[in-house]
Amino acid sequence: MAKGSGILILVLLAGVAAFLVAQSLPAVLAPAEDVQGGGGFVVYVWPLVFGTLLAAVIALLIATPLSVAVALFITHYAPRRLAAALGYVIDLLAAVPSIVYGLWGAYTFSIASVPFLLWLENNLGWIPLFAGPASNAGRAMLVVGAVLAIMILPIITAVAREVFLQTPKLHEEAALALGATRWEMIRMAVLPFGRSGIISGAMLGLGRALGETMAVALILSISGGVTFNLISNGNPGTIAANIALQFPEASGLDVNVLIASGLVLFLITLAINSLARYIINRRRDFSGAN
């Protein structure tokens, strides 16, 4: 049964990959002038790849330390009743549909973020990331990254929490018996043990951030260019959001171009997950019983 399930997953994955490759070939082999924008498929997809990775990296940089801190608070600091309530709330956040996050981000969070974007422009405008001019509606890449961070925070927190709870009690008690404070015990025993779990949770969250569609489409003001300016109205799009926005009206070769961009996103996700698996396997020999 288990073997059959594993084979079925591989077959489905191979089927999806074969479909994407077959439908992508016309777009990849088409003359440059036939592809939207007139520059060929690579020129078309490059800004989307850049925007996808930029939004996901921002989300990961914000969400990972917050998630680890929340997981540590739940497992090692909070009273039992409070920890149970917080765990329930975190799990509930993971069940909120992405369209709800998108609407909240577009009509509430983006507007509330405008003073912060203006502050970044006025005080840190000498840094290219915050050069401005700041978006007067909050429709900037930094805002999208923050919303994506909120979306992936429950995933990373849930994984980190379960891993931290599995830390061998002998390690924790030994550190405390040697005179370590609670934070020193966490730093020497809990975090090293849970490092691979943190990486796994971060990669799961990154996978959701890479493929997020509606939240990005509702919030981001897309110009199509490549820029590192995180607070302006001119932003690169993302692959998933571009497919969602363009596919209903696409026909002919445009459909193949969108499917080919989906293949690129598929390969990016596969590469990131493979890298995460490699990192985790390098630490597989570490055992809490040793």
TrEMBL record:
Query: Known InterPro entries for this protein?
Result: MetI-like (IPR000515), MetI-like_sf (IPR035906), Phosphate_PstC (IPR011864), Phosphate_Transport_Permease (IPR051124)
Q: What is its main location?
A: membrane
The membrane topology term of the UniProt record is:
Multi-pass membrane protein
Q: Where in the cell is it found?
A: Cell membrane
Protein's UniProt keywords contain Transport: yes
Presence of the UniProt keyword Lipid biosynthesis in the record: no
Q: Which PROSITE patterns match?
A: ABC_TM1
Q: Which UniProt keywords apply?
A: Cell membrane, Membrane, Phosphate transport, Transmembrane, Transmembrane helix, Transport
Q: Name one GO biological process term.
A: phosphate ion transport
- GO cellular component annotations, sorted alphabetically? plasma membrane
Q: Which CDD domains match?
A: TM_PBP2
Provide the GO MF annotations for this entry. Answer: phosphate transmembrane transporter activity
Concerning NCBIfam families, the annotation shows: phosphate_pstC
Protein's job:
Part of the binding-protein-dependent transport system for phosphate; probably responsible for the translocation of the substrate across the membrane.
Q: Which family does it belong to?
A: Belongs to the binding-protein-dependent transport system permease family. CysTW subfamily.
Which named protein is this?
Answer: Phosphate transport system permease protein
Q: What is the lineage of its organism?
A: Bacteria, Bacillati, Actinomycetota, Actinomycetes, Pseudonocardiales
The record's gene field reads pstC
